[in-house]
């Protein structure tokens, strides 16, 4: 599974990355987590407001931090 955190390094982007890492570790999910800070790459996903979360090329959320339960749901389905 490939997980991308879209954002420039703001506090919300960092919090989203920590949240995703927590869920991945707690559920023993085999995932590659990368941080995408290149604005052009972020725009390619159609994301205008960060943070954004992309799982296997699919944008799950943009502009806000999802709940831990929602992240777990996306990563375990």
Automatic annotation (TrEMBL):
Free-text function comment from the UniProt entry: Does not function as a glutathione-disulfide oxidoreductase in the presence of glutathione and glutathione reductase. Has low thioredoxin activity in vitro.
Protein name listed in UniProt: Thioredoxin
Naturally occurring in which organism (per UniProt): Methanococcoides burtonii (strain DSM 6242 / NBRC 107633 / OCM 468 / ACE-M)
Catalytic-site annotation from UniProt: 10, 13
Domain Thioredoxin-like fold: 1-76
PANTHER family: THIOREDOXIN
UniProt cross-references to InterPro entries, sorted A to Z: Thioredoxin-like_fold, Thioredoxin-like_sf, THIRX-like_proc
Cross-referenced NCBIfam families: redox_disulf_2
Keywords: Disulfide bond, Electron transport, Oxidoreductase, Redox-active center, Transport
Positions of disulphide bridges: 10-13
Keyword Ribonucleoprotein: no
């Amino acid at each position: 599974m490939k997980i991308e955190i879209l954002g420039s390094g703001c506090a919300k982007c960092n919090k989203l990355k920590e949240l995703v890492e927590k869920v991945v570790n707690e559920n023993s999910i085999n995932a590659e987590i990368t941080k995408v800070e290149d604005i052009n790459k972020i725009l390619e996903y159609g994301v205008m407001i960060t943070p954004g979360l992309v799982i296997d090329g699919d944008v799950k959320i943009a502009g806000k931090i999802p709940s831990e339960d929602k992240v777990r749901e996306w990563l375990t389905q």
